Amino acid sequence: MNPTTKMIRLLRVAVLGVCSCVAIAPLVSHHAFAAKAAETQQVSAKVGKPLKKAREFMDAKQWKEALAKTKEVAAMPGKNPAEEAIVNEMLAYCMMNLKDYAGAVGVYETMLTAGQFKEEEIPKRLLTMSQIYFALKNYPKSIQYGERYLKEAGADLEVLRQVSQAYYLQNDFAHAGEYVQRLIDAAKKQGKPVEEDWLKLLMSTQHKQNKKVEVVATLERLLATYPNDQYWSDMFTYLLQGSSFSDGENIIYLRLVQQANLLQANEYVELAELSLAITNPGEAKAVLEEGFTKGVLGKDESKDRDLKLLAMARNQAAEDLTLLPSIEKEAAAKPTGEALVKVGDAYLGHGKYENAIPAFTNGLAKGGVKNKDEASINLGISYLRLNKSAEAIKAFNSVPTSSKLALMSRLWVIQAGKSQ
Questions:
Q1: pTM
Q2: Secretion signal: which residues (predicted)?
Q3: In CATH terms, is domain 244-418 a member of 1.25.40.10?
Q4: What's the CA gap between 314 and 316, in Å, rounded?
Q5: In whole angstroms, what is the distance from residue 193 CA to residue 184 CA?
């Protein structure tokens, strides 16, 4: 891959550190409390009378007046624990309706510390407190109560997501990644789909920690389940970073970019020049003609160069086609499959996939092929061009996981899967 192509590809990549899924507004639940508490529980006349007046204000949705009257009761000394709990409930409820979430959650914390919640109510209250603190951007507190809720109530997908986002917004990417992975695992266990935003958040935490292998693995998952051009562009960027492709590997890479319909003008030319260099003029001709048809090539100052290159490719391709049958016979007589594999690649370049497949298959069966994994992928490409996805996937999957081309083969599997 030449430096210009690599730079252009790098400029195309999206910034993985920005993930839209972290900017959410949590739902803040207005817990229904016992509105008639002052009437149904044992309270003193001294406390009960003003509380009744506060409740009348609440029934009329006069929240400021209700809050003021409740605060009067809160300031009274000598209240018993039940009265303290009732007053705090009313204070929090008024504050919630006045959108004073900071005040309300402060009251809830007081009640939690004082043991004023019923045992069965605690998880629900913890959830509300975590959500309110998230809305207030107090992420440490949101995490504190979110984690406690998860311990007491079990895996809740929404809370797991919220906690992971809270950690992310604190730049604690290690814990954010841990929780989003827990979220994904919990969803799978519950038989629910893994959402795209979760994978994007996971990938962003990995990117922030410079975990390239993990980023690529998550990007693969995104491509397999939520494919789009941006994810392919990002993947191609990662493929190029620190790469040292041979000409044959580079051609397979550029064919993949072409399959994803993301080939740029300079890459059309690069693929053509590489194909000519390895005596595969059929590929050069085909790719240049595609570039001209799409209006990518033959423009401005590069017009003359592109036209000359196309003329050269056409002349060489015509000559190659006349020679291929005799070359194939000679290759079939050789003791190893190396020559037959090269014939298969030539047929692939010319678009003669029905001829390419037996050449690749027989060549691989003979053995002695130097670049067996390249040949397997090119066999798969031949099948894919004939819309034989199952056979293509089988060929791509024959590349071992230890191969330098393992990732490339898996990406070809994803492309083949789109055709099924």
A1: 0.80
A2: 1-25
A3: yes
A4: 6
A5: 9
